[in-house]
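Table 4 source record.
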Amino acid sequence: YYDSCAVKPTILTNGGFFSMDNGGTCFNYMDNGIIINSTSSYKEGFGIINGELKYGIIGTEKFEDFVSGYPVLIKAGKKTQITYAKELNYKARRTVLAYNKFNIYLIAIEKPGMAFAEMQNLLLALKVDYAINLDGGGSTKVLHNGTCITKDWGNRAVDNVMAIYLKPQIIYRVQLGAFGSKSNADAFLLKIKALPDTIGAGYKNAYIRKIGKYYKVQVGAFSVKVNAIKVINDLKSKGYNAFLTT
């Protein structure tokens, strides 16, 4: 699957449970708004809504993608009482997807594996809010940039996969000048550092970056574009010509 992708996923792993007899998806699975498989049971799981990973029940919210958890391990920061999937509650290699408000976790458990209670204790130690068990055993396999990072016990054919595409973070900087002379750049930098700062722009922390043969005087390193634009507008009101660079 990875080789067939025109745009390669950063991380690729096995997805939800499937039948070893016929290769079909066992539970509920949705891709790009299309229900690939639907069952009346095990409707709890994880899906994507407006680009965010979210726990929910298929059919009750407008998920773009969805996979059932079998079982759901952590819900609202607490262990679930596992009343189903008991036939799988033994030490096994596992693939687990979890998240809290800070992070998304993809956890691959190698041999000798873990039972559900052990997994729940691990997840509570990581302080996750929600976690689901995905297909495991011989299917557990993780590729990072095309390289297998789990112990490869075989290349089992699977019915579905989960692909994660990491976006590079864009940093916005405000540039005021580019000088061929270091001394000229230093003199200009002192003027910027001395500017009154009523918007929290951080003028006193202005800096020089040498890019190619030029010394560039810049302010800030913003992850949010609108914050950088506020600084540009403030500098323009002070008589300085500034522009956005990344």
